[in-house]
Amino acid sequence: MTTAIAIEDVRREVKILRALSGHNNLVHFYDAHEDHDNVYIVMELCEGGELLDSILSRGGKYTEDDARVVMIQILNVVSFFHLQGVVHRDLKPENFLFTSKDENSQLKAIDFGLSDFVKPDERLNDIVGSAYYVTPEVLHRSYSTEADVWSIGVIAYILLCGSRPFWARTESGIFRAVSKADPSFDDAPWPSLSSEARDFVKRLLNKDPRKRSTAAQALSECLIYCHKLVILMILKFHSQLSTAGHPWIKNYNDVKVPVDILIFKLMKAYLRSSSLRKAALRALSKTLTVDELFYLKEQFALLEPNKNGTISLENIKVALMKNATDAMESRIPEFLASLNALQYRRMDFDEFCAAALSVHQLEALDRWEQHARCAYELFEKDGNRAIVIDELASELGLSPSVPIHSVLHDWIRHTDGKLSFLGFVKLLHGVSSRTFAKVQ
Questions:
Q1: Is 45 part of any domain?
Q2: What's residue 8's pLDDT?
Q3: How far is the C-alpha of 406 from the C-alpha of 440, rounded, in Å?
Q4: Strand 116-117 versus strand 86-87 pairing type
Q5: 40 has which bridge partners?
Q6: Residue 10 burial by Cβ neighbours in a 10 Å radius (0-12, 13-18, 19+)
Q7: Domain that holds residue 152
Q8: Do residues 138 and 283 both lie within one domain?
Q9: pLDDT value at 401 more than 80
Q10: Which of 342, 262, 286, 316 is nearest to 82 (CA)?
Q11: How far apart (Å, rounded) are the C-alpha atoms in residues 44 and 67?
């Protein structure tokens, strides 16, 4: 450690470790001391070795069940430090250690040397991390916490099939593959794995960070699947199964999905939307499946709604304070200011679903067309009305400089003056003057 930058990097790592202490899947930080030559960091001893060693000892791949155990632990801790505003930037099997030589022991995330603090709307631009696990947006120098989720997707891919999703002989070749190639799900063992496993990895390895699952969402998906397995086993074995001591229940009963920082970004955009877009989002929310609603129900419950089933700005404040570490506490006023529209009113679960759903993530699903068509039919019955182009432009808050007739003409049906399906889908995505500026 000879440069001022290197010294500052270690000091930042110590600051992050201090701020994040307390999670079961995070290496325990005790203290740090600095003299004229070195910074000494005292941390928990993990004697079980790296996750990478475990992968190699198994001949390169895990069973789906064993991979799920690993994924739940990784997603649990990553969703925790994402909520606190920390991005790791170097997630890989070498940076997860088992606490003991028993592979059923806990995994601990380590090595925050490349980590940094990031605000919800902030984008980082440093190209850091390990080549095989780096995400396309890091290479494009504009990224946030979604970059960690991509790295988790690479780890999941390796766990399940024993090979890397992107490979080349040189670093530049790896970067080209990450940017342009798609991971293969055709070669063995992928055809023999469950569709749930393939879909799970695909959602993590989506090149568009807006369509990628968050760590909290991916954790929720894992837990839904585990709960279903437990129910199936109970039905299958009935009295022969002692459910209280079953490994599925033992392993996952204590895992709780944390508040997802994404919902506050989505709620902020919703509260600032036009009444027309809010109506469109409400229609879309009514098409969500039971599994998609499971995540939103969990998030709504974490905000501790009142007995009448509604949340206010005060509920959100209490939930944030309850989950905050030193890393996050100073940012809570900024969060609350962005949701100030809730100061004088309350939001029920139905509206929360409309506010907290991600159109981009739904768009990445195979059933997106079905979602959109069903939502449009509902919108036709409840919210669609005749609207002239000038009124639509005003509703969207477009500036006078936008050539509204040339860019909005296909939004409205000429037969009855109502919003077309194309206009409805564009409205869902939250178009703005900035979007139309690109058309000019």
A1: no
A2: 82
A3: 10
A4: antiparallel
A5: 33
A6: middle
A7: 51-217
A8: no
A9: no
A10: 262
A11: 25
Report DSSP letters for 325-390, one per residue: -HHHHTTHHHHHHHTGGGTT--EEHHHHHHHH--HHHHHTSTTHHHHHHHHHHHHHHHT-----HH
Q: From the CB of residue 366, how many other CB atoms can be counted at a distance below 10 Å?
A: 8
Q: Are 96 and 339 in contact (CB under 8 A)?
A: no
Inside any domain, residue 284: yes
Q: In sequence order, which ranges of 103-214 are alpha helices (DSSP H)?
A: 136-139, 146-161, 171-180, 195-204
Decide if 34 is inside a domain.
Answer: no
Cβ–Cβ under 8 Å, residues 96 and 54: no
Rg (CA), the chain: 24
Q: Is there a domain that residue 250 lies in?
A: no
Answer yes or no: do 269 and 374 share one domain: yes
Residue 237 banded pLDDT, cuts 50, 70, 90: low
| Catalytic residue of the set 53, 90, 187, 416 | 90
Quick one: pLDDT at residue 435?
A: 53
Domain count, the chain: 2
Distance, in Å, from the CA atom of 261 to the CA atom of 145, rounded to the nearest integer, reads 10
**Does residue 316 contact residue 268 with C-beta atoms inside 8 Å?**
no
Q: Quote the mean pLDDT of the chain.
A: 87
Does residue 243 surpass a pLDDT of 70?
no
| In a shared domain, residues 191 and 279 | no
Residues 208, 61 share a domain: yes
**Helix then strand then coil, % of the chain, to nearest 5:** 55, 5, 35
* Rounded alpha-carbon distances, angstroms, from residue 278 to 27, 110, 226, 274: 43, 42, 34, 6
Question: What are the C-alpha distances in Å from 327 to residues 82, 118, 148, 223?
Answer: 10, 10, 18, 27
| pLDDT number for residue 227 | 65
Q: Which residue has the tokens 């809730």?
A: 342
Distance between CA atoms of 194 and 322, rounded to whole angstroms? 37
Residue 406 burial (CB count, 10 A):
11
pLDDT digits (tens, 9 = 90+) for 162-212: 999 999 999 999 999 999 999 999 999 999 999 989 999 999 999 999 999
Q: Which amino acid is at 241?
A: L
Residues 422 and 302 in one domain: yes
CA distance 100 to 196: 31
Q: Is 208 a catalytic residue?
A: no
pLDDT in tens, 338-347: 898 898 899 9
Q: Are 387 and 319 in contact (CB under 8 A)?
A: no
* Chain centre to alpha carbon of residue 50: 25
Q: Is the pLDDT of residue 234 over 60?
A: no
Q: Are 274 and 199 contained in the same domain?
A: no
The answer to whether residues 85 and 194 belong to one domain is: yes
As a whole number, mean pLDDT of residues 115-119 equals 91
Co-location of 191 and 68 in the same domain: yes
List all residues 6 or more positions away from 349 whose beta carbon is below 8 Å from its beta carbon: 297, 300, 305, 309
Q: Report DSSP state, residue 187.
A: S
